[in-house]
Each structure stands twice: as C-alpha cells, then as structure tokens.
Design a protein that fits this description.
alpha/beta, UDP-N-acetylmuramoyl-L-alanine:D-glutamate ligase, 9-stranded mixed beta sheet, 5-stranded mixed beta sheet, 13 helices, 14 strands, about 40% helix
Length: about 375
C-alpha cells in the first residue's frame, strides 16, 4: 500500500537537520499594527467587527457625498514586512540567519529586537509602518513608506561593507530579497548586486537558493515590473532562482507580460498549471511557485506540481501567511525535498501560522502535518 504523502514528508523530516543552513534575508522592514474594523460597539470592552472586505467597502460607499466615522481597533503590534516575517519563520528552525533591512537607524526599533537569538540584525534605514485591516476574506494593508526610500545599494554598502556583503552572499544557502513593490530603489539595488557583487562571488558546487517576492506589484509601472522580472535571470549564474507569487500577483504579472488574452486573465479563466508554466517559461529561472488560499503549485525544472492545502475558514491571523508559506517552501527546497513535498511544507507552515498566530518550530511543524493528515484531509 502506498504511503500517504504527508506521512512520507514527516518521515523525511525526522532525518533532516534545518539548523545547518545559513540564510540572508532582506531588505524591507515594517512595524505592523493588526487592526479590526468595528461594526457595532456593544460597550467599552465589547464590539462586533466588520468581517469581510465587501462589507467594509459597502460601509465606505454609503458615505459617498456625506461623511462617516469608522472605528479601528488595534489588536496587536508586531514585526512587519515580508522580509522580517519570512526571517522570523525561518528562525524557528534554528538556522543561522542574518537580516539586513529597514529596522531603524541609528538604533534598531525594539519590535525587531524581539526576533530570535539566532538572527543577526543589520539595519541601514528606518522602517515603514503598516495598518493591516484584517477580515475573514483577506486584508487591506495601508502603508506609510517614505523612510523606505533609504533602502539603497549605497546605504547597504556604507553600513555593511562591500567585502562583508560578498561574504554574506557567498556563505548563504538561502538568500531572499523580497517586497520589491514597496522599495522604490530595489531594482537599482539588484542591478548593482549583479554588477559589483556577483562577479566577486565564488561558484559553489550546489547552487544556493535565491528567492524573490514582488509583493503585489499592481501599483508599479509595467516597464518597471518587466525590468525587474527580466533581471532575475541574471542571478542564474550563481543561484537557483525562485519567484514566489500569490494568485492575484501571478495573474497581474501574466497580464503585464502579455502571456494570455486580456479577457481570460481578467476573468481568471487561465488554469493554474497553464499560468505557472507560462510564467516559468518566460522568466527562465529555476522555479516559479504560486500560492492561492486553498492550494499551491510550482514548476521546477520544467515539471508542474500542485497540492491542496489545509484551508481554515476563521483564521486567527492572516497577515504574514504568504511569507510563512514562502519560508516553508524554501526550507523544503533546502532540505532536498521533492517540489510537491516543499509545497506541503510551505502550506503546513502557513496553515499552522494562521491557526496559532505564530510560526511553528520544527517539532510543531511535524506535529501539524500529522494532524493535517489525520483530521483535515
């Protein structure tokens, strides 16, 4: 009898050591306030919240031509930004991590000092601030980002040093450069890494992973997006390059690249397999991974994989779920799992996170996969 995929995954994880890896993550940094939007206040301590984005939209539309008061209830202040959240998730597995980014200057903000002790922090700009309005069907991220204009190659070099940066890149088993859309000078930073850092790096027998996350690029101009996408291929010389996208981002990028007809893209009529394969072929990198809410898929070395996930209707926390998926998927690739097993590891990481409002450690991750096999399938 064929073993269940999740059981095979757990058996493999028993023989893997995640603490042996070195990782470099950058370059954003946000302080997130998780906020609920009040619908009806019962008394000073109790209220019902607006549960869906559509309901919130209706409340706003009714104010058109008039005015309205909307109460926002901050429920939590936490580490924010795609990079710090992904780093925090990977740090739970005892790897050796360095985070470089916008964590505060001259002093790192106390929010980021709560990161685990196996993370070395290098800051070269002040952080942004996000008001994350959470709903059952998604979230609205309202960002204040002027300080992120200081996330530049020049500031990075001035604070870290060129030789030191080369060493960090050379020694890392995983490099992640995320949240491109929020960092105005990220493309320029990548370009200067290609010119000044890559040529100085030693080639490794097994190429490390380089993970990119564009982070909802809808607000950026099409030519900027195309330039960033094409630049990823330039890192193939030294890395196994991976691009991570959620479902909306995947359709948006396919539209910008003109990979399908406009009507099919607008109505999301393209299958995930066709979408994933088209993006993979166009970009020409090691892997493109797409993670809708209830499943995930990837193309690695030209082969398509898809797995369904442990969907939950009432998550405790959704902000950061995608970053936790990315952390789990990249960890799966590092652990030399098969691509479909890496998808399962990514969805297990995010599945635990949205239920527990925190990232799992290695034992919690294995326990969750067993629970998923027994109770969610």
């Amino acid at each position: 009898m064929k073993k269940d995929k999740k059981q095979v995954l757990v058996d493999k994880l028993h023989n893997r050591d995640s603490s042996i890896y070195r990782m470099l993550i950058g370059f954003d940094g946000f302080i997130d306030e998780i906020i609920h939007v009040v619908d009806k206040r019962k008394d000073a301590e109790h209220f019902t919240r607006i549960e869906t984005i559509a309901s919130f939209g209706d409340r706003i539309k009714r104010a058109s031509g008039l005015s309205t008061n909307i109460e926002l209830f901050p429920s939590q202040k936490k580490i924010g930004g795609n990079g710090p959240i992904m780093c925090n998730a990977l740090a739970m597995h005892q790897a050796n991590l360095t985070y470089m980014g916008a964590l505060g200057v001259p002093n790192i903000d106390e929010v980021f000092l709560q990161m685990p002790g196996n993370v070395t922090l290098k800051s070269f700009a002040n952080s942004g601030h996000t008001d994350a309005l959470e709903f059952d069907d998604g979230k609205l991220m309202l960002g204040k980002m002027a300080s992120l204009n200081d996330v530049t190659y020049e500031n990075l070099i001035n604070n870290v040093g060129r030789k030191e940066l080369i060493s960090y890149f050379e020694e890392a088993d995983l490099v992640a450069m995320v949240n491109w859309s929020m960092l105005p000078y990220m493309t320029n930073l990548w370009e200067k890494l290609i010119i000044h850092i890559l040529p100085e790096m030693k080639q490794r027998k097994v190429k490390p992973i380089l993970f990119f996350d564009l982070a909802d690029p809808e607000k950026r101009e099409h030519d900027e997006i195309i330039k960033a996408i094409l630049m990823m291929k330039e890192f193939n010389s030294h890395f196994r390059v991976v691009l991570g996208l959620n479902k909306k981002e995947a359709y948006d990028i396919a539209n910008v690249l003109d990979l399908f007809d406009d009507t099919s893209l607008k109505n999301m009529q393209i299958s995930l397999e066709d979408l994933n394969n088209a993006l993979y072929e166009y970009i020409g990198i090691y892997s493109v991974v797409i993670h809708p809410v209830d499943r995930s898929c990837t193309v690695v070395n030209g082969e398509f994989y898809e797995e369904t996930g442990p969907y939950v209707e009432k998550p405790k926390l959704t902000t950061g779920a995608g970053d936790n998926f990315n952390a789990g998927y990249c960890l799966g690739l590092l652990l030399d799992l098969t691509p479909d097993e890496a998808l399962l590891l990514g969805m297990s990481t995010s599945g635990y996170y949205v239920r527990q409002a925190k990232s799992p450690n290695f034992d919690e991750l294995k326990a969750f996969i067993i629970e998923w096999k027994n109770n969610f399938s």
